[in-house]
Amino acid sequence: xxxxxxxxxxPRQLRAVGHLRRTVRSLCVEMGVAPDDVDALVLATSEACxxxxxxADLDDTFExxxxxxxxxxxxxxxxxxxxxxxxxxxxxxxxxxxxxxxQIMRHLCDEARFTTSGExxxxxxxxxxxxxxxxxxxxxxx
Length: 142
What we know:
InterPro entries: Anti-sigma-factor_SerPK, HATPase_C_sf, HATPase_dom. This protein is of the alpha+beta class and 142 residues long. It has a single domain, classed as Histidine kinase-like ATPase, C-terminal domain (Heat Shock Protein 90, 2-Layer Sandwich), CATH 3.30.565.10. The protein is built from four helices and five strands, in the order E-H-H-E-E-H-H-E-E. It has helices spanning 14-31, 35-55, 87-92, 100-108; strands at residues 3-11, 61-69, 72-79, 111-116, 122-129. Strands 1-2-3-5-4 form a five-stranded antiparallel β-sheet, covered by helices on one side.
């Protein structure tokens, strides 16, 4: 079973999200994650990062942790300086003007949690179980 981790610190810039999307896509494709799952992971990661860019302070950086262990992908996006207000409420209120990205993340992943810390900051945690392509490295040596 494979176990790959990617941990990056990024500036609060849209082009950084573009680079990250390509990196996550490439990693998943090379390991043999099924195309629909690749697309879902890339979009969920992008939505989480875009929330940071929209809501964090201009000089903030943020951290993305992506882990692929067997058939489970885990994505964590951390902003340590600026909490997002009412994340859970926005994520569950279909009439809210904001929070649509949070609803998308929930739809794309098997698990999605959005938490803020008392000291400031936000953690987005998502888990998705993925399927493998034929001959995938996800299933180990073949």
